[in-house]
Design goal:
By secondary structure, this protein is mainly α. Helix content is 74%, strand content 0%. The protein has 23 helices and no strands. The radius of gyration is 22 Å and the shape is globular.
Length: 461
């Protein structure tokens, strides 16, 4: 995420300078490929943090520079780039675009308002849980983007004035509720966020296993988000005037459920069922994502041109480059060297839960000013190595780190969804920080509690 105009301008030369310094300083205990990998890691961190170029450009550089620096062959670099997780991302993006194109989200929101009520508190509930549920299955940015127009419509239905000037508490609660829910909802499943995908790629934790610890953390956070934002931003109005009549009118305008909506819902439910039964069917989650994506094309809900135009292919390239760098960190021994030094700083034989808390705090702090996917690409391979070196469950550090990367609630540059919420004008930076900080602290404590009680048994392959 952008840290500032100056940093953006100097990011590229600074990244080269720091990489050269690291590459030229002798580091005892490191092989030449591992030494070069750490230099490349520093280069990538600065480039991703400053966004001097699009994140995908840095990933392209990571691919061709590895053989030049003697880290590995280009073939080996590309092997890690083409991780099956990439196809899970592609399938997920296509499914999300198909759902958007079908119009299913609008009907779902109005139906929820009709069922749960149109008071301010219930409207916040609907926005939080509608976004959270969507985000569990599709990328959080897409989930939030799908809900934003609905929030604007709800605010209009409530007759709120000057919301874009930051003068409406209900607007603040609705937009931050959906924003935070898009991040918290993604914690529930392996495919909910890019950091989760990264953790799944390195730990190979089964899809169903993730649900046993991911869903409780996500649901509790969603409830806290709903209640806390309703308290922090007391709505200035009771709800939609003549709400029941208005919502029924909106549903009537939509007409009967269309064939496209029925098919989109059927594909989504079918894909979810396949994801939850991979142990029975023998299918893997990557194949399921592509099956769901193909169905949207085969049933003519979506055509390729729409997918080609509306899917962020640059993010996919970026993610592949991050995986390639992660593979180099692991395979050259750089990860083991870095982890040994982290353990040394924490003292002899640190308690596992202390390490988890430290790593989560580090991840939360850094993710406020850096792409959480890039951060996950750096920390998760290291955490897997650390867990293996200590003889612990493979996901004991990787999973909390991936969750911490989703706790990007504090600043607009922390996550695109937060930037989008800020961009509405409904809420300012100070309010985002004040609302997000308590939820971040609760998120860390809740994750540690779940992982070190019933969750730990599900962190193994």
């Amino acid at each position: 995420m952008r840290i500032g105009l100056d940093f953006k301008k100097i990011g590229f030369p600074l990244a080269i300078l720091l990489a050269l310094i690291i590459g030229l300083i002798p580091i005892p205990g490191l092989s030449f490929p591992a030494h070069m990998t750490i230099a490349l890691l520093i280069f990538a961190i600065v480039m991703w943090a400053s966004e001097s170029f699009h994140l995908a450009v840095t990933s392209i550089i990571i691919l061709f520079i590895q053989p030049i620096l003697g880290i590995c062959s280009f073939t080996d670099a590309v092997v890690h780039f083409a991780n099956p997780i990439i196809f899970l991302m592609i399938g997920g993006f296509i499914i999300a675009e198909g759902i958007r194109e079908s119009g299913l989200v609008r009907r779902l929101t109005y139906t929820l308002l009709d069922k749960f009520g149109t008071t301010s508190t219930k409207a916040i509930f609907v926005c939080v849980f509608a976004t959270g549920i969507l985000s569990a299955w599709i990328e959080n940015i897409i989930a939030f983007a799908l809900i934003m127009p609905i929030i604007a419509e709800i605010i209009g239905l409530m007759g709120v004035d000057h919301a874009e000037e930051g003068k409406s508490n209900i607007a603040k609660a609705l937009i931050l509720g959906a924003c935070f829910a898009s991040l918290a909802g993604g914690i529930a499943t392996e495919i909910g966020t890019a950091p989760n995908l990264m953790a799944a790629a390195y730990t190979h934790i089964p899809f169903v296993n993730w649900l046993f610890f991911g869903v409780p953390i996500s649901v509790v956070l969603l409830i806290i988000i709903w209640k806390f934002l309703s308290y922090m931003f007391p709505p200035e109005i009771d709800g939609i005037k003549d709400g029941e009549t208005v919502i029924k009118s909106k549903l009537k305008e939509l007409g009967d459920v269309t064939r496209q909506e029925k098919l989109a819902l059927g594909i989504l439910l079918f894909s979810i069922l396949l994801w939850m039964t991979t142990g029975i069917t023998g299918l893997d989650s990557y194949s399921v994502a592509l099956i769901g994506a193909a169905l949207f094309f085969l049933l003519r809900i979506l055509d390729w041109r729409e997918a080609e135009n509306n899917i962020d292919w640059g993010l996919i390239i970026f993610f592949g480059g991050a995986l390639s760098l992660g593979g180099a960190i692991l395979n050259t021994g750089a990860a083991e060297w870095l982890i040994n030094n982290v353990i040394f700083l924490l003292g002899a034989s640190p308690e596992t839960f202390i390490v988890v808390i430290v790593l989560m705090i580090i991840a939360v702090a850094i993710t406020q000013v850096m792409s959480n996917v890039a951060l996950a690409a750096i920390l998760i391979p290291l955490s897997v190595t650390l867990a293996q070196s200590q003889g612990l469950a493979v996901g004991v550090y990787a999973v909390p780190i991936s969750i911490a990367c989703s706790l990007s609630f504090l600043l607009p540059m922390a996550d695109p969804t937060v930037a989008m919420a800020y961009g509405t004008g409904y809420v300012n930076i100070k309010e985002i920080f004040k609302a997000g900080l308590p939820i971040v602290i609760i998120g860390i404590l809740l994750t540690v509690l779940v992982i070190f009680t019933f969750g730990q048994q599900f962190l193994i392959v």
